[in-house]
Write a structure and sequence with these properties.
The complex is a heterodimer of chains A (788) and B (162). Chain A is an alpha+beta fold. In chain A, a hairpin with a 5-residue loop joins strand 13 (296-307) and strand 14. In chain A, helix 15 runs parallel beside helix 16. Helix content of chain A is 29%, strand content 23%. Chain A is globular and about 85 Å long. Chain B has two domains: 2-77, Beta-grasp domain (Ubiquitin-like (UB roll), Roll); 86-161, [2Fe-2S]-binding domain (DNA polymerase, domain 1), CATH 1.10.150.120. Chain B has a five-stranded mixed beta sheet with strand order 2-1-5-3-4, with helices on both faces. Chain B is globular, with a radius of gyration of 16 Å. The chains are: A alpha+beta (788), B alpha+beta (162). Chains A and B meet through helix 1 and helix 18 of A and helix 2, helix 3, helix 4 and helix 5 of B.
């Protein structure tokens, strides 16, 4: 390990520009002659558009153009797509409704895009939008899944008259039912996984630009995956062929999934830029973000776990309803299916599992992947069930987990996944030691003496990252392959540019990727720059989500570096006048076995370009290599989080007193950055458990559409975190990395709720466990009543 | 249009603005200082915090004309003589930022906290004082550490100067 290489807590290279105000986000970009777009959005959750009168608005000062769904249709702009095909139990395909970028004849949620006004200034566009007269015929709306599935409910899409998008299953139903019939104990739980709004701090934004001379488009966009955006906007929506379409995602201020997707706004901005032959810019205000960013979670589940006479789990049966919202977002269909049910085995050896999932349209914003995407929902089901089962059986929840852990690897679950490696007991034991779980009883007694209820909750999570082997996901319905690409360009003086298809929006790739290069080539990280986020620079890529940039993105870089090393050895053999087989490369130095002949990496790079020392017909000059890495398996980060909290039964206020996380992410490139990812994930999970929840009223109005109404976790709501690691290197990629980006958000909600229910002595609480709910629940707490 | 003049990061600036122009838009659009960010529209997130006459204000709810004649410091003006401010150093050293979007507002608020509360800040005080700044990436752990360290460094600098 060098002081800058793999494993070192290097301070981030990208920080200088962020701490000095020199970051360059999409809203910081202004193009010459730029006009501004303002979207007129539906105030109704469900309505027919009878007519749109643009007369007054079109004549308003500064207005360049106003477009509606008719213009999109006339130009044959394709609809927004959902890129993962799911099939119903009977084999028929999912029932997908059309998703035009501007509404055509009907609006389906509050915030749906009715028209776009393009004007010289944003204020003019906004003022003109107020002058558009839309004649709506308001239709009855269905804001929740129960209402949407009731007989006679209004139909949202004609393709799905009963609002059922799909009805899907995974696992062995007969085998699972048989195991339940033989069970000695069955634990049953009804679970709501609350709807969340991602809230990256940078609102979404887009600048579309058209160059008439070359007939080409450029889109600056807040994207986690600019190449996927270009692919969809080009191949499916049909705005321009890829070779005449550049997508740039510069600094992006957080994503958490919400910036994976291809939305109406960027589609319209880049399409309209050609129409008006001026750059067109749009930046969401926060309320627009609340209304129109894809939301997350929103599951309602009934789950049952069967156990034998020894408390060994024998089967799991899960029925989930998943809210899709009014339209299908880009990867919406995959989240409650293949990103969810295959994780229902958790860290446990469960011989039989059956899951059925019904996806439902409602008159709400589209729902898609949000940090963890399906895996937090699965973990919440498993870790709540196992905690309640332990309590019902009178077993210690840690020991009960331990006796059911998978201990032999590889382990094939009954729901697709083959766990490759892990040591779940090691994480649990280390977490218990770090947390001082042995001292809990004394701390609980101390709390009780102050009239407080103290609880401790475990969560032993597993997730599937390193998304994903292309052929495997293809067989499950994915419309794309999920490899990653890399190009390593060595300059003649030995500095290096890495072009990657991964995209950094907070993850610190400019530092960690440079650390890998430093370790491999023996050069300082300052001699390495990471190029990403521009389809004109990086040939192709699949982007950053699903904790894949380390396990997949860096694996591609590693593969390209292998080729660089092989080529450089050939050059070194000529330079050092030795046979290629005798050349060794270590710590940035080429040496000849058994001699003192040596050359450093920089001088060999120079020789590769000068090409004086070898025959250019036999060995190509230059030093530049590229690679695509397609994973052979998912990776399986896993760990144990312990939450300990105190409830004030007089106010219902929950105070998290200590948090311990022990995660196994495989090998770690930069522990500082990895711990930061864990901290942020926990905060989002605690937010889900205690504070956050999207609320629609019965008419489909979003009640929580600002920071006055939607409770974001603030510094005072959260504890400091005690973070530790265990390591079992991942066998399926050359770096042994599993991925760390989502773990905290996956692990933490059940840890919090298990702690609250442990404190209360009953299970009657739902997320978010607000003070009002906790106060009510505390009034019937046997622990409170016993104290009185 | 109304003429507005002020000193920003030590430089006299002026511009003709629509009277409804917010200070953040004057800073971002007229002065092209894009380090000050807009993260919400209800004065909650704090990404837009700048100093006006030495005090932290949210520039997204301040009219540009209302600070006519004032002395404004933005994140771009915090480093002096090519040297980072101790609070900037502390954010980098403690990994107190990820995506960087809330960071300018966080740092400007942090400096203001130290100016008001002194250099010896405990964790509870820092967490309480951050009520007006939202971060979605870091879970605040490293921001709290950074502010504690930055405060101590500012205190040391002040003591050395005295």
């Amino acid at each position: 390990m060098t002081d800058q290489g793999i494993g070192a807590p290097v301070r981030r290279k990208e920080d200088f520009r962020f701490i000095t105000g020199q970051g360059r986000y999409v809203d910081d970009i202004n193009r010459p002659g730029q006009a501004h777009a303002y979207f007129l959005r539906s105030p109704h959750a469900h309505a027919k558009i009878k007519s749109i009168d643009l007369k007054d608005a079109s004549a308003a000062p500064g207005v360049v153009a106003i477009f509606t769904g008719d213009d999109i249709a006339a130009d044959k702009v394709g609809g927004l797509i959902c890129g993962w095909a799911i099939f119903n139990k009977d084999g028929s395909p999912m029932r997908a409704g059309a998703h035009p970028a501007l509404a055509q004849g009907k609006v389906r949620y509050v915030g749906d895009h009715v028209a776009v006004v393009i004007a010289d200034t944003l204020a003019q566009a906004r003022d003109a939008a107020e002058m558009i007269n839309v004649d709506y015929e308001v239709l009855p709306a269905v804001a929740d899944m129960a209402a949407a599935r009731k007989a006679g409910a209004p139909t949202i899409h004609d393709e799905a008259p009963d609002n059922q998008f799909y009805d899907w299953e995974l696992g062995d139903k007969a085998g699972t039912d048989a195991a339940f019939a033989k069970a000695k104990h069955v634990t049953k739980l009804d679970i709501v996984n609350n709807r969340l709004i991602p809230n990256a701090m940078e609102p979404r934004a887009a600048v579309g630009e058209y160059d008439m001379g070359s007939d080409s488009l450029t889109l600056y966009t807040t994207s986690q995956n600019p190449h996927v955006a270009r692919l969809v906007l080009s191949a499916f929506i049909g705005l321009a062929p890829e070779h005449k379409f550049r997508v740039i995602a510069p600094d992006v201020g957080g994503g958490f999934g919400s910036k994976i997707f291809i939305y109406a706004e960027e589609t319209v901005c880049v399409w309209a830029a050609r129409k008006v032959n001026r750059p067109v810019k749009w930046t969401a205000d926060r309320t627009e973000s609340f209304l129109s960013d894809a939301h997350g979670r929103d599951h309602v589940t009934h789950a049952e776990m069967a156990m034998d006479e020894n408390g060994k789990i024998t089967a799991l049966r899960v029925a989930t309803k998943a809210n899709m919202g009014a339209y299908l977002s880009t990867f919406a269909s995959s989240v409650p299916t293949y990103l969810y049910a295959p994780l229902l085995s958790g860290q446990y050896n469960i011989p039989a599992i059956y899951a059925e999932v019904e996806a439902v349209y409602t008159n709400t914003a589209p729902v898609d992947a949000y940090r963890g995407a399906g895996r937090p929902e699965a973990t919440y089901v498993v870790e709540r069930l196992i905690e309640v089962a332990a309590r019902e059986l009178g077993k210690d929840p840690a020991d009960f987990r331990r006796m059911n852990f998978v201990t032999q690897f590889p382990h094939q679950t009954p729901v697709i996944m083959a766990y490759d490696v892990g040591d779940y007991d090691a994480s649990l034991t280390k977490a218990q030691q770090m947390h001082d779980t042995a001292g809990f009883a004394a701390r609980k007694a101390a709390s009780a003496s102050k009239g407080k209820l103290r609880g401790l909750g475990y969560s032993a999570y597993i997730e599937a990252c390193g998304i994903a082997p292309s052929a495997a996901v293809g067989s499950l319905g994915a419309g794309v392959g999920l490899w990653e690409s890399a190009e390593v360009r060595v300059n003649p003086i030995g500095t290096v540019e890495i072009l990657t298809g991964s995209h950094s929006h907070g993850q610190g790739h400019e530092t960690t990727f440079a650390q890998l290069v430093s370790s491999r080539l023996g050069i300082p990280i300052d001699n390495v720059s990471i190029v990403h986020g521009d389809t004109d620079k990086v040939q192709m890529g699949m982007g950053t989500y699903g904790s894949r940039s380390g396990a997949v993105g860096m694996a591609a870089i590693s593969k390209a570096l292998d080729k660089i090393e092989a080529k450089a050895k050939k050059v070194a053999a000529h330079v050092l006048e030795a046979s290629e087989g005798d050349i060794e490369f270590k710590d940035g130095k080429f040496t000849v076995k058994g001699t003192d002949k040596a050359a450093d990496f920089g001088s060999i790079a120079l020789q590769a370009y000068i090409a004086h020392k070898f025959n250019g017909q036999e060995l190509e000059p230059g030093l530049k290599e590229s690679a695509f890495w397609d994973p052979t398996n998912f990776t399986f980060p896993a760990g144990v989080h312990i939450c300990e909290l105190e409830i004030d039964p007089a106010t219902g206020v929950v105070t998290i007193d200590r948090w311990t996380a022990v995660d196994d992410f495989g090998n770690v490139i930069n522990p500082l950055i990895v711990e930061g990812q864990v901290h942020g994930g926990i905060a989002q999970g605690v937010g889900q458990a205690l504070l956050e929840g999207a609320v629609y009223d019965a008419e489909g109005q979003l009640i929580t559409a600002s920071y006055m109404d939607y409770t974001m976790p603030r510094a005072q709501d959260l504890p400091s975190y005690n973070v530790g690691m265990t390591i079992t290197p991942c066998p399926s990629n050359p770096l042994g990395i599993k991925g760390c980006g989502e773990a905290g958000a996956i692990a933490s909600p059940p840890a919090v709720i298990n702690a609250i229910t442990n404190a209360l002595g009953h299970e009657n609480i739902t997320m978010p466990a607000t003070p009002e709910k906790v106060w009510k629940a505390a009034q019937s707490s046997p622990h409170k009543l016993a104290a009185e | 249009m109304t003429k507005v003049s002020m000193t920003v990061n030590g430089k006299a600036v002026s511009g003709d603005v629509d009277p409804r122009t917010l200070l953040v838009h004057f800073i971002r659009d007229n002065l092209r200082l894009t380090g000050t960010h807009v993260g919400c529209d209800t004065s909650q997130c704090g990404a837009c915090v700048v100093h006006v006459d030495g005090q932290a204000v949210k520039s997204c709810t301040t009219l540009a004309v209302s600070v006519d004649g004032a002395n404004v410091t933005t994140i771009e003006g915090l480093a002096q003589g090519g040297k980072l401010h101790p609070m900037q150093e502390a954010f980098r050293e403690n990994h107190g930022l990820q995506c960087g979007f809330c960071t300018p507002g966080m740092i400007m608020s942090a400096v203001d906290i130290v100016n008001r509360k002194g250099a010896g800040l405990d964790e509870a005080t820092i967490r309480h004082e951050l009520e007006g700044n939202i971060c979605r990436c870091t879970g605040y752990h490293n921001i709290v550490k950074a502010i504690g360290d930055g405060a101590a460094a500012m205190g040391g600098q002040k003591a050395a100067a005295e």
